[in-house]
Structure formats: C-alpha cells, structure tokens
UniProtKB/TrEMBL annotation:
Organism expressing this protein natively: Winogradskya consettensis
GO molecular function: DNA binding
InterPro entries: YbaB-like_sf, YbaB/EbfC
Designated name of the protein: YbaB/EbfC DNA-binding family protein
Record SUPFAM superfamilies: YbaB-like
Gene3D superfamilies, per the entry: Nucleoid-associated protein YbaB-like domain
Taxonomy, superkingdom: Bacteria
Amino acid sequence: MVDEGGLDAVEGRIDGWQAGFEQRAAQARELGARLAGLTVTAESDDGLVAVTVGQGGRLTGVRLEEGIRGRPAGETAREILAALEVAQAAFADRAASATAETIGADSATGQAVIASFFRPPT
C-alpha cells in the first residue's frame, strides 16, 4: 500500500513526465512547421542557372535564363548539379540550425534529425 506522501511523489513524477512529453511535442510541432516552410535557392556564378530545394532538400525548381542557350548541354548540366549541391548543403545547414533552436542539437532526437539531413542521397 502507498501512503499519502508516496502517492503525492508518484503523482508529481507523472505530472513531470506529462509536462516533458507536452514540451517535446510542442517542440516537434514547431520544428515540423519550420522545416515544412524551408526553401533554399542557389544560383550559378553568372546567374544563368538557379535551383530551389524544399522539404527534405528535394529539388523543387530549376530556372534557366535565356543566355544559357549558347552553352553546351554538358556545361549546363554541370551548372545545374553544382547549384543543386550548394542549395542542398545550405538547406541542411538551415535545417540543423532550426533543429538546434527548437529541440536542441545535444539531445538524441536532435542529433538524429540533424544527421538525417547530412546523409548522402540514396
């Protein structure tokens, strides 16, 4: 049988757990909202190629200026891929910052989320 003092301690512990769960859920919702709205655009040095990445660092847009027409296709492809690499790296950095600001970079969850943005694509 649990005495009243012991029961109060158990209830206090349960209340603490619940508050911790609620705080982590709120942090996760905030991080989710921030990541859902995160986009990054990177341009080639000459501004003729621009790519945009969105959720998860996935390519969401490519813009080619008319001046690109005179270039060989292989050069254009390299410019697109280079801009994509820059955009994805910037996306990962911003996502890592958002994670650190919301759930914390030192927590196991934060470290797992951050690591997921720096994995090579499959």
